[in-house]
Design brief:
41% of the residues lie in helices and 14% in strands. It has 350 residues and is α/β, with parallel strands linked by helices. It folds into 2 domains: 183 residues, Rossmann fold; 154 residues, Rossmann fold, CATH 3.40.50. The strands form 2 sheets. The chain has a 5-stranded mixed β-sheet with strand order 2-1-3-4-9, sandwiched between helices. It has a 4-stranded parallel β-sheet with strand order 6-5-7-8, with helices on both faces. Strand 5, helix 7 and strand 6 form a beta-alpha-beta unit. The longest helix is centred in the first third of the chain and has 25 residues.
């Protein structure tokens, strides 16, 4: 039986040129799972406000992480898939696609179809479930599979469940954290996750019942927690905190990358850093467990903007733990090759 693995991530602009960044922002923000406003409003906001006014600033930020040929996210993802390929049986093959840049999801599915695989294991490369990333990716994958195979018999389709608490992901994440952690120096451990609008917590049908329970439900086991971003972020924080035995009362969870006027998950990373600095905290260890690969949000937003802001507020050092990048091929192979980590598409009623 021939199995195709398909890793799927967000993507990056073609280059840091303003026109390429503008094009990327339009594709990214016109996705209804990213910006959930009705199409006419979304079109007006993206094409009339965000893309024209943010493109130049965003291009300058992207230029800070450009190596002259590529951005870290696609480069690291490609390197990781190449390493995993060496670990796979000769009958199997791994591909990767990016949601808003190349390689395109449909093109990769066409390649998979040509090689006549019996099964496709789809890997939305986001540790925690979110409608804007995981569910949006699963929806687009199923849509493109139907376009590529049309009325022909499709391969068996499965998808990797959120892996925020999977052994191999945690083992490598903890190892990274331990390498950077200096208990005699780091007063606070701060885990910064990509933010989402609060409304996204109940966007997916299976989350609604969960989110009507008391506020402390997020750390409890509940059927809805399988599809709750906030719950999985808080659990990730606790798992990683305990792996280095850092005090609970010196561990914080925050959310970054806010966009637009809607209410987003709180507290924000910048507000948390300001509060900590003003309370006398000087040395923080920062990690970002919602990102598998370093990208603009970690390399520019955290390494530069957040760090400079913390120092301006009175802090002294903000040390960030790098993302896993391409340094966990063996662990990632172990995780994605375990069939118990997968679910059927029927389970989420796509």
């Amino acid at each position: 039986m021939k199995t195709a693995y398909l890793i799927h991530n967000i993507g990056s602009p073609k280059s840091p040129a303003v026109k390429d960044v503008r094009s990327y922002l339009r594709k990214f923000l016109m996705d209804p799972f990213i910006l959930s406003a009705p199409y006419p409003i979304r079109f007006l906001i993206v094409n009339g406000i965000i893309a024209p006014f943010r493109s130049k600033t965003s291009a300058q930020n992207y230029a800070q992480i450009w190596d002259g040929k590529n951005f870290p996210l696609p480069a690291q993802t490609e390197s990781l898939t190449q390493q995993i390929q060496d670990l796979l049986p000769t009958s199997d093959k791994i591909f990767y696609s990016l949601a808003f840049s190349d390689p395109d999801l449909k093109d990769q599915l066409e390649a998979i179809k040509q090689e006549q695989f019996d099964e496709i294991r789809f890997i939305a490369f986001f540790p925690q479930w979110a409608t804007s990333t995981t569910f949006g990716s699963l929806t687009e994958f199923k849509k493109q599979v139907q376009k590529v195979w049309k009325k022909q018999t499709q391969p068996k389709l499965t998808w990797l469940k959120p892996f925020y608490n999977q052994k191999d992901f945690i083992t490598k994440s903890s190892e990274n954290l331990k390498k950077a952690y200096k208990p005699e120096k780091h007063e606070v451990l701060l885990m910064s996750y990509h933010g989402i609008p609060v409304s996204h917590l109940t966007q997916f049908e299976k989350c609604k019942t969960h989110c009507t329970e008391p506020k402390d439900c997020c750390l409890k086991e509940h059927p809805g927690s399988n599809y709750c971003y906030l719950s999985q972020c808080l659990k990730t924080t606790e798992i990683l905190r305990s792996s280095i035995n850092h005090p609970k009362d010196k561990t914080y969870t925050s959310f970054q990358s806010r966009l637009g006027p809607a209410k987003w998950l709180e507290p924000s990373t910048l507000d948390t850093l300001a509060d900590l600095a003003h309370s006398g905290v000087k040395h923080i260890l920062l990690t970002s467990p919602s990102f598998t690969v370093d990208c603009l949000e970690t390399l520019e937003e955290l390494d530069h903007e957040a760090k400079d802001f913390f120092i301006e507020c009175g802090g002294e050092t903000l040390d960030r733990v790098p993302c896993l990048n391409d340094n966990w091929a063996t662990e990632c192979f172990n995780m994605i090759s375990d069939t118990s980590h997968y679910a059927k598409f029927e389970d989420i009623n796509l």
